[in-house]
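User: Show me an example of a complex going from sequences to structure tokens.

Assistant: Sure. Here are the input components:
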Amino acid sequence: MARFLVKFLRDRCKACELCISVCPKQILEIETDLYNKKGYHPARVQPGKDDECIGCTSCATICPDSVISVFDTTKE
Amino acid sequence: MAERVLMKGNEAFAEAAIRGGCRFYVGYPITPQSEIPEFMSHELPKRGGTFIQAESELGTINMSYGIGCAGGNVFISSASPGIALMQEGFSFLCSAEVPLVAMNVSRSGAGIGGIQPGQCDYNQVTRGGGNGDYHIPVFAPSTMQDAVDIIYESFEIADRYRNPVMILADGMMGQMMEPVVLPEPKTLYKDEADIANYKPWALTGSKGKANRNRIKSYHAHPAELEQYIDYLYEKYMRMEKELQRAESYHTDDAEIVFVAYGSMARIVREVLEVLRKDGIKAGMIRPISLWPFPTAPFEALNPEVTKVVISAEMSKGQMIPDIRLALKDRIPVKLFSRTGGIIPSTEEIVAFVKTLRKELK
Amino acid sequence: MKAIYQSTVGEGLTLTDTSYCPGCGHGIIHKLVMESIAELGKLGETIGVSPIGCSVVAHEYMNVEMCEAAHGRAPAVATGIKRVHPNHIVFSYQGDGDLASIGMTEIVHAAMRGEKFTTFFVNNAIYGMTGGQMAPTTLLGQKSTTSIDGRKKEISGMPIRVSELLATIDGAVYVERVAVNTPANVRKAKQAIKRALDVQQRKLGFSFVEFLSSCPTNWGLTPVNALKWVGEHMIPYYPLGIFKQPEEEK
């Protein structure tokens, strides 16, 4: 189980890709085979790359639509 | 208790506003109404109210919108060109349903014009100089006591309809001194913390409310805006029914009926007496509400009795269209007008009537 | 499981999706302002004023009581509101066309009077809502629909630095310029918002935060390149930093 969990309110995402551009580990991507409610392809953690997340929250910080929340699964 | 005092018009207007429940005043210097901000600057704070001198009339109308949104009872005043600058604001307040009491102590001429009295803002205040479909009730006091009583009542009218209310006076009324009876001070809400109870729609913070209040003017969707405009028009039609006010003097047997408001009406009352002594049956309809224009007194005129109606104005016939509409052209309408700040004399109007009667024979 | 960054949707921000373009800086700034107010526990005692511009609809997204203001007049409106409710947090949120063009008199005089509200000024160097015209903050040589060959000094003068201008006014007690082009700068921007709100709550005078922000659509850039443009072109002309702060803070 990866230490950090990055959750996306996918229907709010507008695929602006800012989160992807600022992720220091470059583990985010656009999910091209899914459309959200607004017709955008939402962002997500690349499948299998969850454990590479270092919990820096840069993605959530830069997101213009408050799509992203980041959790530390080892803490209460 | 009610007090009888000798006061200058502008100061009486301000005092009446304070007694009528005004807790905020915003203004800007402009002749002939500057005594109002002057008076408010030292009197309002003494009564627990707030005075703000704005950066301009644009600042004035927008600050008063903010105060109105927040539920404060606010009074503003200016004169003709200053009122012109506020027109976008009036349209905005109507679109957002924000109450306000505004006073125009009007002067003469277009543009800068002159600083003496005039009545040439009639079209602007009754038709509205702002954009869009909206209306503002306009009351035109004639004596200073009229003005005090109307201003005193106007805050409740503005709150009742959640709409601006305009009081149209002129420089003569503002600058002259006259004894007036000042009514009992009224409190519309205990203090600003109490506003949410008095005006549940006002912006007082969402704490303790099921839903947060918002006040807006922009409507992105045409269907929603049309529906909203229809809703506002139900309100304007209510105003049109409920706020028509006028006084008639000796119109039943009058062959000549003057129509005059404000300072002009005072002069015409004297003219009636002189003419009656000369055996000329003259009367007057004095509109008190200019919008909604009072139609009833005009409908009551009988063309068999009244041969001519004279619109007596310190403007170039701006009231005539409303008079003709109310009369449905059943009686010819003539104009008696002086402008530029000239205030006509009784004799001058009497002479006008006499020459007019010769022409009509 | 502990949230180390919790989206403020449903708390500081409403559930309504914003109408802003993908990557627009408004979204970042809305989020920061509302996170800050939520963290102060003051959502229920805040009243905001939105401008005429893309963010005229800010009240659809900011979960506080708000009103709209006529173009450029938000500082006058906020003045009125703050005078009625002196203990509430009051802010105006304005773009560069709204504040630095038609509204320049209102912002300068609100600062002069030392009105105790906070203005959040979004400088994206263009008129967004109306489709990309030149704004007072449009950079020299920057293209817009009313400066298609780039802004020229001889006919349109130089871009105006609002923070420096307001910092000369005694009543402006706190003036800072920040940017939202990188996560690090976004975090600093949030600290600036908190400082400004603190100045307001301590009733020290007028507080002002200018945000260098992006307009991908009207700049004709992708959201990522637009934020790069902020860093490469706007920050050099509009230096970041605190231009005014209360005495004891120094």
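The lines above are the inputs; the final block is the predicted structure for all three components together. Chain B has two domains: 3-195, 247-360.
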